[in-house]
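Good morning,

Attaching, inline, the backbone tokens for the sequence recovery test we're adding to the shared suite. The designed sequence is right after.
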């Protein structure tokens, strides 16, 4: 089973709604090159969600 990875984007790749809030970076969880989460506003949030998905995958 493919592992979930964390991808960061910066600058103009950040969704406009987040740039309007002053965020210059955001993070996505990806699996096989496909986003499995929406943009997350912090690396710790992305890491926490990644751990949750890994735990869910192990218990299913």
């Amino acid at each position: 089973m493919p592992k979930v990875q964390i991808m960061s984007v910066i600058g103009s790749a950040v969704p406009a709604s987040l740039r309007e809030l002053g965020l210059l970076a955001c993070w996505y969880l990806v699996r096989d090159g496909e986003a499995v989460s929406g943009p997350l506003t912090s690396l710790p949030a992305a890491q926490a969600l990644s751990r949750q998905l890994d735990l869910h995958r192990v218990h299913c």
